[in-house]
Amino acid sequence: EDQVTQSPEALRLQEGESSSLNCSYTVSGLRGLFWYRQDPGKGPEFLFTLYSAGEEKEKERLKATLTKKESFLHITAPKPEDSATYLCAVDEGTDKLIFGTGTRLQVFP
Amino acid sequence: NAGVTQTPKFQVLKTGQSMTLQCAQDMNHEYMSWYRQDPGMGLRLIHYSVGAGITDQGEVPNGYNVSRSTTEDFPLRLLSAAPSQTSVYFCASSRVGNQPQHFGDGTRLSIL
To answer: Which residue of A has its CA nearest to B58?
Structure first.
């Protein structure tokens, strides 16, 4: 069964304390991997798309990387406004996205 | 630019009632989808559409109907509401299926 697993479920960081979120997947053929940010009471907001192993994308304090079996979302020197739930989703070429359950990030000043 | 608009934002229903959740997008996107989000289970695909007149089932389609008569609108119908359908429902759209999806802000539905 195709699966997307995110870890950790929750992460508490001090402001400025860098860390990484993991998204591992088991799908037969990856067409794309997506990272989203979700704030409480809102819909997910698109961050990055990665299409092939070795690809990297950056936006402000966030950097996403992709290998053949997992993706990492690196957060460098996070600020309290980075607090949110981060979702990973995989497109295996069937027009259906498979979402992970997310990592809830809290950044304290 | 409104993006993806969902109505209503909140709704309480009694078991057995039916209702339609509305979703509209103004980006001329071909692909639209409906998800439900439950604690600890992530977003699960209910139904999706790759264009007007074309719909297909996702992971959890039972108890829900969809139609796509126009590019802009993709309503989700609950035929006979059950407590297990209490959830937050999100509609999303993208230019085509493998492009990043734009999400609405959700409909919070409670079935008593």
So the answer is: A96
